[in-house]
Each structure stands twice: as structure tokens, then as C-alpha cells.
Design a protein that fits this description.
Blueprint (H helix, E strand, L loop, with lengths): L1 E3 L2 E3 L1 E5 L8 H6 L8 E2 L2 E2 H11 L4 E6 L2 H9 L3 E4 L4 H12 L3 E5 L7 H10 L6 E7 H7 L8 E3 L2 E11 L4 H13 L4 H8 L1 H8 L5 H12 L3 E5 L12 H16 L10
Parallel strand pairs: 3-6, 3-8, 6-7, 9-12
Antiparallel strand pairs: 1-2, 4-5, 8-11, 9-11, 10-11
């Protein structure tokens, strides 16, 4: 099992729920669910489960609402877990059921690497309730040229999330509750601004807010200690949100198989 501040990380949850409607990536790949997309002999979900296991996390659960995805989870020894209405609610349920510390990732993290997980957990400072892994634009553009990511622009650079979180203590539930509130308010932006604070938003919009300041402030609003860990490998920010991401991952894995490192001609 992975260690955090001398404490073992016994559990993880993979968020693999299906949103309402048809997933364009699943349609593009010709499968019923995105998590079931195959890379060679492995499904995307299998790759995620195996990475968590290789990191030393013994108990892997998968939150999904598709019977096919739940069956795939069971086939690889993961505990099927009913997905809630959204990823934040599924995370809250998993934290209540499995307890802290808990690693959270997603079922579309096709390139997830056990080394990223171990390094992330090892670098979370003592006293943190919640930690999030992010990568800088520069690292992503070096490791994954052609991959198109969404960036958060701060005073200290542009960052992209790596879909890897540590809910280190039971207090992390307060951060998940803030996430749930923001998720509920996504169609009413003024509510989100009110929750997060106009001053914080204005500092972000004018590029006067650093990433650490933002995460710290959000943690304070939730009543928890939140921290950021930077991932040096930009590939950690690559997930499969759209067909072009799938094309990129397939090209990358194909080149990894034949030992070719350069991806400059991959048009994702």
C-alpha cells in the first residue's frame, strides 16, 4: 500500500459514471461506455485499476452506473460501487463508505502511471486534509505535444489538472461538499461567485492569483487544509475527454510499444 506521512493508503475510488446522454468518445470508439475502450488487450478501466494496484493500493473500487462497466470492474478484482448523480456525490459516498485516506481518480485516465501515484502521495505534506496533483503547461507541451488540454491561468503560470486527488483525512468531506455545491450551481454562475468570493475571482481574472494561493483560499472556504503537488511529467494531465484525446493516447501507446519517443507529428 502507498504511504502518506507514515500512514498507509488502503483504498481508492475510480470515478467511471456515465453522464446523461451519449458519450461522444464512446460513440467514436464504437463501445457502449468510454471506460470500456480497448488499448490492445486492455480496457481503459483495466489500465487504471492496474496502475493503482501497482502503486501499492490494495483496495480499488469503481463508481459506475453502467452494468457493463461494473462487470468490468469486478472482472479485474475491483469493488463495484454505484455511482451517484455526479462525480462529487460519488466521491462523497466513497469517502463515507471507505474512509480516509482515499485516492480518487477517473476511469478515463488511460495513461495513469503507478510512479505518479507514489510520488504524489509521498510529497503531500503532513497536516493536509486534501491534495491535488497538477502539471504546468510547459511540462505538458514537452511530454505530450499535440495534446489539447484545458488550462487554469494563474500568476505563476498555466496549469492543468491530473485527475488525481488525495482525501487525506475525514475532514476532506468538507471540501467534497464545497465541490458538490459548485457542481449544483454550475448553471447559475453568480452562485459560484458568491460561494468562492468576488475578490478571489477578480484576482484570478486579472492574473494576480497564484495557484497555491487559490487552492489555499478554496480550502479555507471549505474549512480544510488544501495543498497542491506539482507533477513533473506532463503526461499525467492527459485524459480521454474527447475523440482527439483518444487518438492521441492510441498514438502514444503505439509509439511506446515500438520504442519511438517523439510525438511531434501526432495531430490530436
Amino acid at each position: 500500500m502507498a504511504a502518506f506521512g507514515g500512514t498507509m493508503i488502503p483504498s481508492s475510488v475510480v470515478l467511471a459514471g456515465s453522464r446523461d446522454g451519449t458519450d461522444p468518445v464512446a460513440v467514436h470508439a464504437g463501445v457502449s461506455d468510454k471506460a470500456l475502450i480497448a488499448f490492445g488487450e486492455e480496457t481503459m478501466l483495466e489500465r487504471v485499476i492496474m496502475a493503482l494496484r501497482a502503486a501499492g493500493i490494495g483496495h480499488v473500487s469503481v463508481a459506475a452506473n453502467s452494468p457493463a462497466v461494473l462487470a468490468e470492474a469486478e472482472r479485474h478484482g475491483a469493488m463495484p460501487f454505484p455511482a451517484a448523480a455526479g462525480p462529487s456525490a460519488s466521491t462523497a459516498n466513497a469517502l463515507e463508505e471507505l474512509g480516509a485516506p482515499l485516492i480518487v481518480t477517473t476511469g478515463d485516465h488511460a495513461l495513469l502511471n503507478s510512479e505518479w501515484i507514489r510520488d504524489f502521495v509521498a510529497r503531500v505534506p503532513d497536516g493536509a486534509d486534501v491534495a491535488v496533483l497538477l502539471a504546468r503547461r510547459e511540462a505538458i507541451e514537452v511530454a505530450a505535444p499535440g495534446s489539447r488540454r484545458t488550462y487554469l491561468r494563474f500568476a505563476d503560470g498555466d496549469w492543468s489538472g491530473c485527475n488525481l486527488f488525495l482525501l487525506a483525512t475525514p475532514r476532506a468531506i468538507d471540501a467534497v461538499r464545497l465541490w458538490q455545491a459548485v457542481e449544483r450551481d454550475r448553471k447559475q454562475p453568480w452562485r459560484i461567485v458568491r460561494r468562492l468570493g468576488v475578490r478571489l475571482l477578480l484576482r484570478y481574472l486579472t492574473r494576480r492569483l497564484t495557484l497555491v494561493e487559490a487552492i489555499t483560499a478554496l480550502g479555507q472556504r471549505a474549512g480544510v487544509s488544501a495543498t497542491v503537488v506539482e507533477c513533473a511529467d506532463g503526461l499525467a494531465a492527459v485524459d480521454v475527454d474527447k475523440p482527439s484525446d483518444l487518438n492521441f493516447v492510441r498514438a502514444f501507446l503505439g509509439r511506446a510499444d515500438d520504442g519511438t519517443a517523439r510525438l511531434d507529428d501526432v495531430n490530436a
